[in-house]
Amino acid sequence: MIVGSRPRFRQIVREVWKPLTVLFLWDVAVTIFHFQTQFKEPPLPAALLGSALALFLGFRTNAAYARWWEARTVWGALINASRTLARMTGSMIKQPEIRDGMLIRQIAFAHAMRCALRGEPLRPDITRLLGADAAGAALKRKNPAHALTEQISTLIGEAHDNGALNAVQQASLERVMTDIANAQGGMERIKNTPLPNGFRFIPNFFTRLFCVILPITLVEALGIYTPVGSTLIGLIFLAALSIGEDLSDPFANSVHDVPMSGMARTIEIDLLESMGREAPPKLEPVNGVLW
Q: Of 206, 195, 207, 201, nearest to 248 (Cα)?
């Protein structure tokens, strides 16, 4: 996630420079053709198309941002549920080995979700937290994160069986585990359900079509300045198109990503400190980006 209030024009140009270069060359070609042949270009409804396209791009960007914000919301719910689990186990379970086993697995769960959503290898973080033997059972499963929540529920059941929890306390902890499962389901739904194809195809096609006809409609009025004016207008539309693309997948492991590394580290810090253990430092932005 990009943090800070400074404009990042270099980032915008880096994302759109290829189509922008093609657009500029096309603008130059149209301008040269106009002055070489004195051909009178036919009137084209560029203003009408541009207005309709701007509305559609705005709608698509809003839909993409809603996905991004929902992704951030479910991660916030996971942080809150993890803190609740730590607080409740601290007051209910007096056996440190059971409580610590639950919280360590919850930390591993957060890192497992981060890695699964970004397509990164899960083994290093889970092994670091649980050890090779304990991590092996989760890593054998197709969904290691779900396996870790099952292990936590198993520990809750064992605490109830040995008298560390009564039935009401067990039910309360299981409700927290339901919140964690709901957060996991929300993340997986967002990751596995992309925006409809029309939300990608239509803006891409009509934005490029608009950029093609734009210099033809402007060359009579702008003359030799057509490449500059047309390219600047095209930059606005291409940037809006790129923003929608970037936000449509909040787990794409890009600079526009939901900062899952930072949030997983927040869970790790809070839960380790609740166990009285030394916690790693908070993640800081790197070159203006919080991962």
A: 195
